[in-house]
Specification:
By secondary structure, the protein is mostly beta strands. The chain has three helices and ten strands. It folds into two domains: about 130 residues, TATA-Binding Protein; about 60 residues, no CATH class.
């Protein structure tokens, strides 16, 4: 199973499987999934896609449209969320995270329920995402002291870095996939204790 941290910095882990979109007439089928999962996921909520347009010209106008695309089924503690959508399935686990085997097995069980409802719809994408938050109580630091992958600053520039956003896309030829690594420095607002 690999190395396991006593206090893993994972704030969310998820498995997402996209399928060729189903017609909106299948929404009732997706809603009925709740009957199969309500013991473990008693909360049910509609999931919408919201699109907006702004037109600029001699006159400025704006419009917005909200479309029902599926349902969220959530555990009573809010730590696990199962999305059954017209375009796919997502299972996410919020902190505290156990391990990969638990996440995989729970997702597999829920995927089987979703798959039984949608039938042989073609899978077009599979993704796994981990969001880690590592709190470092130092306002100015050398990121290389904490991370193996960091931005490289030209020696001609000042070497103090107060923030950054970096994305790396690393092909994974062994399974014909892509590893996308997003790394950023978050600043915390003291009066709300929330990071932005």
């Amino acid at each position: 199973m690999g190395f396991r941290y006593a206090n893993a910095p994972i704030t969310e882990a998820l498995i997402d499987i996209r399928v060729e979109p189903l017609p909106s007439s299948r929404l009732e089928d997706l809603k009925a999934i709740h009957d199969s999962v309500k013991d473990q996921c008693p909360e049910k909520r509609e999931r919408f896609n919201v699109q907006g347009e702004i037109h600029v010209g001699p006159e400025v106008s704006a419009s917005a449209q909200r479309t029902l695309i599926g349902f969220d089924f959530k555990t009573s503690d809010g730590k696990q969320i199962f999305q059954a959508r017209l375009d796919g399935f997502t299972f996410s686990r919020l902190k505290p995270y156990g391990n990969w085997v638990e996440l995989r097995d729970q997702a597999r069980s829920l995927w089987s329920i979703y798959r039984a409802v949608i039938g042989g719809q073609k899978v077009i994408r599979v993704a796994v995402r981990y969001i880690n938050q590592i709190d470092i109580p130092v306002p100015s630091l050398d990121y290389k002291d904490y991370f193996l992958t960091t931005p490289e600053i030209s020696p001609a520039l000042p070497q103090v870095l107060s923030g950054f956003f970096m994305q790396l896309q690393l092909p994974q030829p062994d399974f014909n996939g892509m590893l996308i690594l997003n790394q950023t420095a978050a600043t915390c607002l003291l009066y709300t204790s929330r990071c932005v």
